[in-house]
Write a structure and sequence with these properties.
The complex is a heterotrimer. Chain B is built from 15 helices and no strands. Chain B is mostly helical. The radius of gyration of chain C is 21 Å and the shape is globular. The chains are: A alpha/beta, B mainly alpha, C mainly alpha. The interface between A and C is large, with 65 and 57 residues.
C-alpha cells in the first residue's frame, strides 16, 4: 500500500510541476497573440522557451533517477522461527522456507539439483527441449518460466514460489518485481568459476553443509585425478568452440578453462591467457594447436552451429594442425563442457577427462 | 559538368594509375594481417607450395578476400552510377534502394526456412531479393504526383530497409543466439569468403561491367531527362529495363557473396564525377576502379583496428563513407 | 447540419470536429477495453470483471500483485510508448511533408541504441557485471537519442534546414550509428553483446512503476504543448515558401517540432527499446480516418499508436507463453502487410 501511496504522491507532484510549466507556455502563446502580428514569436520568447526546455530536460532526467529502488524493502512478516538471512548481490534477504524454489539461471538449476532439491520452476536450458540431456531425468515435471534473459514474471507468480534464485547480470531490471513474488537471492555475475555462485545458492537454500559436501567431493575428485595423472598434466590442452557464424578459442576464465586450470593441466602458449575467449578468424586456426584439443559446438537447433563446425574442420589450416594430424582433436558435448556451467556438468566433464586421458 | 581532369590523354593515364594502385593494394592485402607473411611466401605459395600455414593462409584466405573485395567494390560502385543516372538522383544507390537489405533478408530467410546451402541457389536468391526490393522501392517512391524525388526515394528505401530488417529480426526471435551471427553477416564482410562463392557470380558481374560500359552513351542521353531522351530517339522503356537488370545482377551478386556493404555505391560515383566530369564513358570505369580501391583499403584497415579481432568491412565503409555522404547531402540543392 | 461544434468562452473559442470527437471517444473506449482484457489474460487468467475490480483496488491480494505490479506498468508503458511514437511520427510527417517519414529516420532509435550499447560496454567490469544500476540505462539512451537528433539538425543546417537535407543526413547518420553499434558490440566483452542485443530488440517485459514514472511526464508534458502548437503544424505542412509568407519563422518552428519529436520518441525508445513501424503506421491509419488536418490527426494517431503496441504486447506475452516475444516483432508483422498493401494500392 505504501508503494501505491508513494506513486500517487509522486504523480500529484509531477502533475503540479507540469501544469505550472504548461501555464508558462500558454503565457507565451498569449503574448504572441496580443503582440507582434508579423513576427509571430519574438526572439526573446524563443530564448525563454529554450531555457524552459533545458530546465525541463534536467528536471525530467532527475525525476527518472529519483525514487529508484522501491524493490529493496523486504516482506516484514518475520515471525517464522526457521527464517534465515542471506547476503547477496542486491542486498540482504530474509528467507522463510525453500520448499518451492524457482531458479532463473542454467548453472543455478544444476546447483539446486545437486543439493537434492527439485525446483518447481526453472528457465529453459540453452540447448535441449526444454532441458539439457544430462539433467532431463531429474527435471521431469518442472515448469519452464521463460528464458534466462527473458523471464516470464507471471509464470513464476503462478507457481507461488517461496524462494527465487537469479542472477544480477541477467535479471537486475526485474529484481523489484521478483522480490514482490517471493524472497529473491541474486548472484553477482556469471563466470567460468561456478563455485562462488554455488556457495551463495547453498546459503540461500540453508544447505551450507550439503553444499560444502558437494564441493568437497568435487575437490577430492580433482585432487585424485591430479595425483593419478602425473606426467599427463604437461599435456597442452587446447579448447575451441564453434557457434553459428563464430569460432572461438577459449581461455582460462571459462567453465572448462577453470577446471583444467584446477587440475593443473598446461595450455598452449597463446591460450595461457586469463581472459574469457576470443572470436577468431581463419587466420588464427594455427593458434588452436596443442597436444590435445577438445572442441564443442553450440547448436541452437537449426544446423548452423554444425555447419560452422564442418566448414572449419575441413579447412586446410585445421587439417594442418599437428594435434589434428595426430588424431588428438576430440569433439565433446557443448552442454557439459561449456553451456550448462553447473556442478553436475563439472562432474560429467571430469568423467570425460578421465576417459580421454586414460586416468583410472 | 566538367571534372578536374580535362584532357583525354590525362584521363587514360590516370585510369591506369588507378588500376595500378588497385593492384598494389590487393598485393598489400595479401601480405598483411594477423599471421606474418612476406612477399616471398605469397609468391612461393603458388610456385613452391609446401603446405606451411603461412602459405595456406595466403592461398585460402588472403588472396580470396583481396579478389572478392576488389570485385565487389567495382560492382557496387558501377551499380551506384547506373542507379543515379536512371533515377537522376544524386543519392540513389543500392543501400538507399533497400536492395542490400532485401537481398540480405531473402538469403537469411532461405537459409533459415529452406535450409539452402548450395552456392548456386544462394546467388539466385540474392538476385531475386535484390529485384523485389528494388522494384518495391521504386514503386513506393514514385507513386503519387511528384514522382521519384530524392526525398521520396530515400524515405521509401529507408522504409523497405526497416521492413526487411525487422522481418529478419522477427525470424530469428526464437533463437537469439543466432542473432549475433546475423548481426555480423548483415554488416557485410569479405573475411572467410571463399573463391568458390565468387566463381558462379563472377561471369554475371563481369558481363554487367561490360554491359554498363556499352550503355554509357545511352546513360548520357537518359540523364538529360526522359522526355529529352525520347525526343532524341531513345527507346527509353527497353533501356530502363536493361539498366535495371544490370543493377539487380550487380547488387544481388555482391550481396550474395559479401553481404550488404554500404556507402560504396553512393559515394564513389560522386568522387568519379568530381575527377572526370559527367560523361558516363569515363565515370563508369573510374567509379569501378575507385570502388575497388576503397573496399580493398577498407578491408585492410578492418584487420588492424582492433587486432587480433576484425571489424566487418561493412562497418568500416560506413564509418569512412558517412562524412562524404553528409558532404554530398549538404552540397546538393534539394528543394 | 454543421460538421463542427463551436465552443466559446470569453478568451478562447475553438471549433470541434464532430467526427473527430466521436472517433476519439470511441478509440478511448476501445483502449480501455483492451487494457482491461490485457490485464485479465496472461499466464494467470483473471476474469475481466475481476480484473476491472482489481484495477480499482477491490481484488484479492494475489490478483492485485499480478495486475498492479506486473501487468499495469507494462500496459501503461506499451500504450504510452506506442502513442508517443505515433505522435512523433505524425509531427515528423508534417514537418518533412512526406507520409513515409518516421522517428527512426532522424536517428532517434539508432542514437539511443548506440548509447545503450556504449553504456553496457563502458560500465561492465572485468567479470562482466555492470558497475552501476541498470536503471540508468533509459537515461543514457534518452540522452543518446537527443544528442543524435541535435547532431543531425546541426549537420543539416545550411542557412536553414530543408526537410530533404534533414532526411538524407538523418538516414546517413543512422547507418553510421548502426556501424558504430556493431563496432561497440564487437569491441565489448562477449557477455555484453547478448545483453545489448536483447535491449536492441525492444520489449516491455519486466518494466516497473519506476519506468512509468520516467516515461509518463514526457508524454503528459508534450500533450498541451502540442495542443497549443497544432495550428502551426498545419502551416508547416504547406511548404517553406507559403509558411514563410504567412509570417512563420519556419526554421525555428521546425526545430521546436523536432525537439518535441525527440522528446516523445526518445523517451519511448529509452524505456521500451526500438519498437518499429508504429511511428509510420499510426499516423497513416489516422489520416485514413480523420483526414490530414492536425487538429484531429494528432489525438487519433496517438490513440491508434498506443493501441497497436498494446495489442502487440498482449500477443507477445500470450501466444508463445511461457516464452516472451518482444512487442516489436508483432508491430513489424502488422507493418509488413500494411506496407505491401500500400504498395499495391498506389500501383493500381
Amino acid at each position: 500500500m505504501s508503494m501505491n501511496l508513494k506513486i500517487i504522491i509522486n504523480y500529484i507532484l509531477t502533475q503540479l510541476l507540469y501544469t505550472f510549466m504548461i501555464l508558462t507556455v500558454n503565457d507565451i502563446h498569449y503574448q504572441q497573440k496580443i503582440g507582434e502580428r508579423k513576427k509571430m514569436v519574438s526572439k526573446a520568447t524563443y530564448k525563454k522557451m529554450g531555457i524552459f526546455f533545458m530546465t525541463l530536460i534536467l528536471l525530467l532526467s532527475l525525476s527518472a533517477c529519483v525514487g529508484k529502488d522501491g524493490g529493496n524493502e523486504e516482506s516484514s512478516n518475520t515471525d517464522s522461527s526457521k527464517s534465515y538471512t542471506v547476503k547477496h548481490a542486491m542486498g540482504t534477504t530474509k528467507v522463510k522456507s525453500h520448499k518451492r524454489v524457482v531458479v532463473l539461471t542454467n548453472e543455478g538449476t544444476e546447483a539446486v539439483l545437486a543439493m537434492g532439491i527439485k525446483p518447481v520452476g526453472a528457465v529453459k536450458s540453452w540447448e535441449g527441449d526444454p532441458w539439457y540431456n544430462h539433467i532431463k531425468d531429474k527435471m521431469k515435471g518442472v515448469k519452464v518460466v521463460g528464458e534466462e534473459s527473458n523471464v516470464n514474471l507471471e509464470a513464476i507468480m503462478a507457481l507461488k514460489p517461496d524462494l527465487i534464485i537469479g542472477n544480477k547480470m541477467r535479471q537486475e531490471k526485474i529484481y523489484g518485481q521478483l522480490s514482490k513474488i517471493a524472497p529473491t537471492v541474486f548472484s553477482e555475475d556469471l563466470r567460468g568459476n561456478w563455485k562462488d555462485n554455488f556457495k551463495l545458492y547453498a546459503k540461500a537454500l540453508n544447505k551450507e553443509k550439503e553444499g560444502q559436501k558437494v564441493l568437497d567431493d568435487f575437490d577430492n575428485r580433482v585432487k585424485s585425478i591430479k595425483e593419478k595423472a602425473g606426467d599427463k598434466l604437461n599435456t597442452k590442452v587446447s579448447l575451441v568452440r564453434f557457434m553459428p557464424g563464430i569460432a572461438r578459442i577459449y581461455y582460462k576464465n571459462t567453465f572448462s578453462g577453470v577446471i583444467f586450470d584446477q587440475l593443473g593441466f598446461a595450455r598452449p602458449k597463446v591460450q595461457d591467457n586469463d581472459g574469457f575467449a576470443d572470436d577468431v578468424t581463419r587466420e588464427r586456426i594455427p593458434d588452436m594447436d596443442g597436444d590435445i584439443m577438445f572442441y564443442f559446438t553450440y547448436e541452437p537447433g537449426d544446423g548452423k552451429g554444425t555447419k560452422m563446425e564442418k566448414e572449419w574442420t575441413n579447412d586446410p589450416l585445421w587439417k594442418n594442425l599437428s594435434v589434428v594430424k595426430k588424431g588428438n582433436a576430440h569433439r565433446v558435448d557443448d552442454a557439459v563442457w561449456n553451456t550448462a556451467g553447473g556442478v553436475i556438468a563439472a562432474n560429467l566433464m571430469l568423467d570425460d577427462i578421465e576417459n580421454y586421458f586414460h586416468i583410472k | 559538368m566538367n571534372g578536374i581532369i580535362h584532357s583525354t590523354r590525362l584521363k587514360i593515364i590516370a585510369l591506369f594509375v588507378g588500376m595500378l594502385l588497385l593492384c598494389l593494394l590487393m598485393a598489400l592485402s595479401v601480405v598483411s594481417g594477423y599471421t606474418d607473411t612476406s612477399w616471398k611466401t605469397a609468391i612461393s605459395a603458388y610456385t613452391h607450395f609446401d603446405g606451411s600455414n603461412a602459405q595456406i593462409i595466403v592461398k585460402t584466405s588472403r588472396v580470396p578476400r583481396a579478389i572478392i573485395g576488389a570485385v565487389i567494390g567495382v560492382s557496387l560502385a558501377i551499380s551506384g552510377v547506373i542507379l543515379q543516372a536512371i533515377t537522376r538522383n544524386p543519392i540513389a544507390s543500392p543501400e538507399f534502394f533497400g536492395i542490400n537489405a532485401g537481398a540480405g533478408f531473402f538469403i537469411v530467410a532461405a537459409v533459415t526456412f529452406l535450409g539452402i546451402s548450395s552456392l548456386q541457389q544462394f546467388m539466385w536468391i540474392g538476385f531475386l531479393g535484390a529485384g523485389i526490393a528494388g522494384i518495391s522501392v521504386y514503386a513506393l517512391g514514385s507513386a503519387g504526383r511528384e514522382g521519384l524525388t530524392p526525398i521520396r526515394l530515400t524515405l521509401a528505401g529507408a522504409v523497405m530497409a526497416a521492413l526487411f530488417a525487422s522481418l529478419t529480426q522477427g525470424m530469428l526471435v526464437s533463437n537469439e543466439k543466432a542473432l549475433e551471427e546475423v548481426l555480423f553477416w548483415l554488416a557485410g564482410s569479405v573475411e572467410g569468403r571463399k573463391l568458390e562463392l565468387l566463381a558462379p557470380v563472377l561471369p554475371y558481374l563481369v558481363c554487367s561491367w561490360i554491359g554498363a560500359l556499352f550503355l554509357a552513351r545511352q546513360l548520357n542521353t537518359f540523364s538529360l531527362g526522359e522526355d529529352v531522351a525520347k525526343g532524341l530517339g531513345q527507346r527509353t522503356g527497353a533501356f530502363k529495363l536493361l539498366a535495371t537488370l544490370l543493377v539487380i545482377l550487380l547488387c544481388g551478386g555482391s550481396v550474395a557473396v559479401a553481404g550488404p556493404i554500404a556507402f560504396i555505391g553512393v559515394v564513389v560515383p560522386h568522387f568519379a564525377r568530381f575527377l572526370v566530369g559527367s560523361h558516363h564513358g569515363w565515370v563508369i570505369p573510374y567509379s569501378g576502379v575507385i570502388g575497388g580501391i576503397l573496399l580493398v583499403a577498407a578491408d585492410i584497415a578492418a584487420r588492424f583496428i582492433i587486432m587480433p579481432d576484425e571489424v566487418p568491412v561493412g562497418v568500416m565503409t560506413a564509418i569512412i563513407g558517412t562524412p562524404f555522404f553528409i558532404y554530398i547531402a549538404r552540397k546538393g540543392k534539394f528543394k | 447540419m454543421n460538421k463542427y461544434w463551436i465552443l466559446r468562452s470569453k478568451k478562447i473559442s475553438f471549433l470541434l470536429d464532430k467526427r473527430v470527437f466521436f472517433l476519439t471517444l470511441l478509440l478511448c473506449i476501445i483502449t480501455i477495453l483492451v487494457m482491461i482484457v490485457s490485464s485479465s489474460v496472461g499466464e494467470l487468467h483473471i476474469p475481466p470483471l475481476e480484473a476491472a475490480k482489481t484495477l480499482f483496488g477491490f481484488g484479492s491480494e494475489m490478483n492485485e500483485t499480478v495486475i498492479q505490479k506486473f501487468r499495469l506498468p507494462r500496459i501503461l508503458i506499451a500504450f504510452i510508448a506506442g502513442a508517443s511514437l505515433a505522435l512523433s511520427g505524425a509531427i515528423l510527417q508534417g514537418v518533412i511533408r512526406n507520409p513515409l517519414a518516421s522517428p527512426d529516420m532522424i536517428g532517434i532509435s539508432t542514437g539511443a541504441g548506440f548509447a545503450a550499447v556504449t553504456f553496457i560496454t563502458m560500465f561492465s567490469n572485468k567479470s562482466n557485471a555492470l558497475t552501476v544500476s541498470i536503471h540508468y540505462l533509459p537515461v543514457f539512451a534518452f540522452i543518446g537519442a537527443t544528442i543524435a537528433a541535435l547532431f543531425i539538425y546541426f549537420l543539416a543546417w545550411k542557412k536553414g534546414v530543408s526537410p530533404t537535407r534533414l532526411v538524407l543526413i538523418g538516414i546517413g547518420l543512422m547507418a553510421a550509428f548502426q556501424a558504430l553499434t556493431t563496432l561497440m558490440i564487437i569491441l565489448g566483452p562477449i557477455y555484453a553483446a547478448s545483453q545489448a542485443t536483447i535491449w536492441l530488440t525492444g520489449s516491455v517485459n519486466g518494466v516497473s512503476w519506476q519506468d512509468v514514472n520516467g516515461l509518463l511526464p514526457w508524454f503528459i508534458l508534450s500533450l498541451p504543448v502540442l495542443a497549443v502548437l497544432v495550428r502551426r503544424l498545419n502551416v508547416q505542412e504547406l511548404g517553406d515558401e507559403l509558411s514563410t509568407g504567412l509570417g512563420v519563422n519556419t526554421n525555428r518552428e521546425r526545430f521546436l517540432f523536432l525537439m518535441i519529436c525527440t522528446a516523445l520518441a526518445g523517451s519511448a525508445v529509452a524505456f521500451s527499446g526500438a519498437i518499429g513501424f508504429v511511428g509510420l503506421i499510426g499516423p497513416h491509419i489516422a489520416r485514413r480516418l480523420v483526414g490530414s488536418s492536425f487538429g484531429g490527426l494528432l489525438p487519433v494517431s496517438g490513440l491508434i499508436g498506443g493501441l497497436i503496441v498494446l495489442i502487440a504486447d498482449l500477443a507477445g506475452r500470450t501466444l508463445f507463453s511461457p516464452l516472451e516475444v518482444p512487442a516489436g516483432v508483432f508491430t513489424a508483422a502488422v507493418g509488413a502487410p500494411y506496407f505491401l498493401y500500400l504498395l499495391f494500392k498506389t500501383n493500381g
